[in-house]
Known about the structure:
Elements (H helix, E strand, L loop, with lengths): L1 H44 L3 H6 L8 H13 L7 H8 L3 H14 L17 H14 L7 H4 L3 H23 L5 H13 L5 E11 L8 H4 L7 E8 L5 E9 L4 H7 L4 H4 L8 E3 L2 E3 L3 E3 L10 E2 L8 H27 L12 H22 L9 H19 L15 H11 L2 H19 L4
Parallel strand pairs: 1-6, 6-7
Antiparallel strand pairs: 1-2, 2-3, 4-5
Amino acid sequence: MASSSNIDASNSSDDEAWEQSVAEHNRQLDRIIEDVVIHAASLSVQPTNHAVRGRRRYIERRREIGHEGVFEQYFSEDPIYPPEYFRTRFRMRKPLFERIMNKLVATDRFFQQHPDAAGRLGMSPIQKCTAAMRVLAYGTSADLHDEYLRMSAQVIRKSVIKFVEGVISNFGAEYLRKPTEEDMAALLHIGERRGFPGMMGSIDCMHWEWKNCPTAWAGQYAGRSGTPTIILEAVASQDLWIWHAFFGTPGSRNDINVLDQSPDFDDILEGRAPKVNYIVNDRERNMGYYLTDGIYPQWAAFIKSIPAPQLRKHQLFAQHQEAARKDVERAFRVLQARFAFIKRPCLIWDRDIMGKIMIACIIMHNMIVEDERSTYLNYHDPTEFIEDRLRQNTRRSEDEEETNDFVYSTNRIVSLASYMRTRSQLRNREDHSSLLHDLIEHIWQKFGDDD
């Protein structure tokens, strides 16, 4: 009997041990299942990078509120901010901005407001044009205006590209044109008043830093500053109008290299430019010229200052030449002040988009000049110059049957000999020295002291 009781006790102890081991196993299994559930829940809340790329989260920005806010602040009948605030923040007066916006709406479907599949209206033209102008005017990133305009950074970037393309296609032919006969008459009249008969403006170059330049291109785009830049060549007049813009040359080159590629003199060489006649120091000449700094070559089309002048005539000439040549420098600074995007290092990867932004800013700059030119301190209406010149030409043609001073030709060159002859005349050093001497004497007679 004792042996049987011992066997029963040992069996019961084995059963208890087995039950304990099974219970411990079940507890471990429950903990594993709980950990798996918690881990799966964490994956659903914080997806991996691969899951983020595959699924985009929708954000309800309430875009209607963004439109209503901008409209009440600037575009309603009784806006919150007065016109001077609009001019400061949009870089132009309200009628000019509305003119650009209405033209874009009429020509580009992107700026038209259409309902989506749910019947809800998309972004308004005011929101898209305001976003583009804010990015260009302040030079900020696209996502900075998300909270104010209730637009995603992707839509804002697309609005900027569409905006500059629309400005170029709709206004480029008018506001980035070559000087016409009337424009040339006004330019020459202003130059004669300043002591430079025959002057068509001043020419110079500006660098725009390219921060996101590809590493493979950094060598050819890095200039003296050591950072990649792209060069803009421009011709500007006293009223800051930019008559010529050539953008895209790598920053490792200088002004002379840019000049060799520039199409500025193509019209002159091909016989399509307005030909002018003027008299300086009792000599008649028939080719206009630009004021430049010291790096440009001694061509008949360029007039430079005199370094370290010693004579009073030379000092007076250098003073007037350097003052008038600052027109293009002023135009660059005003252009960068109006559009801070082209003043700061560019974060765009595409060089073609950079060129479109630069040209569009120049076009809008000229539009602002035309709209606000009458408010300048030393403003002179160019139509008065044109009307006076036309009256003089009419009287002379009636009395003496002579031709007009300004002849505009749209025909291309008829022969290579004509092209080479014009090119030789344009680069003639002797004509440059003769014209420089005549201008020194003319300025001394016009502005020098009688004593």
